[in-house]
Amino acid sequence: MIESFREAFGRALVELGEEMGNLVVLDADVKSSTKTIYFERAFPERFIQVGISEQDMVSTAAGLAIAGKIPVVSAFAAFLMRAWEQIRNTVARDNLNVKLVPTHSGFSDHMDGSSHQCLEDVALMRVLPNMTVVVPADAPSVKPLLREILELEGPVYMRLGRDHALRVYEDPELELGRASVLREGDDVLIVANGVMVAMALKVADELKRRGIDAGVIDMHTVKPLDERTLLGMARGVGTVITMEEHSVYGGLGGAVAEVLSEKLPKKVLRIGTSEFGRSSRDYFALLERYGLTHERIVRKIEGVV
Fold first, then answer.
1. Marked catalytic residue, from 40, 54, 148, 227
2. pTM to 2 decimal places
């Protein structure tokens, strides 16, 4: 089943807004695309349309956080990076309770090409002190993780795609900082997040048919990384594979490799991209081009294991 990250986000905002009277939402003139428009319709007095000014939006959210509100900032991921200076100097440096929840990350804005496809954001956010970084696997994961980040005191970056959310969970019970073990395996360990979690399960099925037993972890929280689960699952395998819809530099693959290099040296195969994206009429055709379909990934793993 394919669902929508942004639809799940918009609906969850309204449900949580009914429970949390101090929740406010800010948008950068893309409310129909991010689906924050649902929150505006439900709570117009708690919705702020800043316009195409991401830097001002983040700074305004910082002020709201200081005033005791819980501001949720939304925009396209690629354009929220315009405000990295404000995120660094105001939100992260002052450890403010601002929740950055962009949509259209990774290749998900497939038609608009590299200018709109954000493949560097996890790396940019993970490097910031005080920043928690979260990447939900599917639409059902969005609400429980959104609730978790709203209840957490401090800055959070939660990365969402657009519409192509492949179903992983039915009724997920997720906890920030604690990875979800989806499958045990003795030969290799696959650590994935975002849409690559569903792809990892397909990869594990195909590897099983080829005589390779693969474990699968949904590492939805990239920072702080669940080192205990990672090390426990990695200890008995020969190779660890990371899968992400992001650059192989500085994202999930980098985080996993850092931990293993210091605490449990293992061979690590990082699967992601090292290029900018391109325009495509079809999202899955774009994943195929960059080697992120389960068939292409199985071939990469077989070449290593």
1. 54
2. 0.95
